[in-house]
Amino acid sequence: MTNKRLKLELTIEPFVDANPGPHVVAAIEAAEEAGLEVAVGPFGTTAEGTDALVLSAMSHITGAALATGATRVTLQVTETAIDLA
């Protein structure tokens, strides 16, 4: 892997405004356990980290959501910067 930073944007359905279900909570916990920086917004969740962390966590995050009731998980990955650390 490189030293790139990636942002993973997640939309997890079913979606209930202001009431994240267990499928959303499971995905957030999986992202946090993977060492990603997680931010929960009104329409989705973002998780950021190095490319190695994000890419290796995607399957675990998706699996956690589907195993707890998600009917759809939409992922978008964007390169945000080069991590100079």
Write the layout of secondary structure elements.
Blueprint: E1 4-13, H1 22-33, E2 37-40, E3 45-50, H2 51-67, E4 72-82
Care to describe what's here?
The protein has a 4-stranded antiparallel beta sheet with strand order 2-3-1-4, covered by helices on one side. The chain is globular, with a radius of gyration of 12 Å. The longest helix is centred in the C-terminal third of the chain and has 17 residues, at 51-67. The protein has one domain. A hairpin with a 4-residue loop joins β2 (37-40) and β3 (45-50). It has helices at residues 22-33, 51-67; strands at 4-13, 37-40, 45-50, 72-82. It has 85 residues and is α+β, with helices and mostly antiparallel strands. α1 runs antiparallel to α2.
Briefly characterize the structure.
This protein has 85 residues and is of the alpha+beta class. Helices cover 34% and strands 36% of the residues. The protein has helices spanning 22-33, 51-67, and strands at 4-13, 37-40, 45-50, 72-82.
Biggest sheet: strands side by side, in what order? Answer: 2-3-1-4
Structural class: alpha+beta
The helix tally amounts to: 2
Strand content: 35-45%
Radius of gyration: 12 Å
Describe the biggest sheet? 4 strands, antiparallel
Q: So what's the overall shape? A: globular
Features:
85 residues, alpha+beta, four-stranded antiparallel sheet
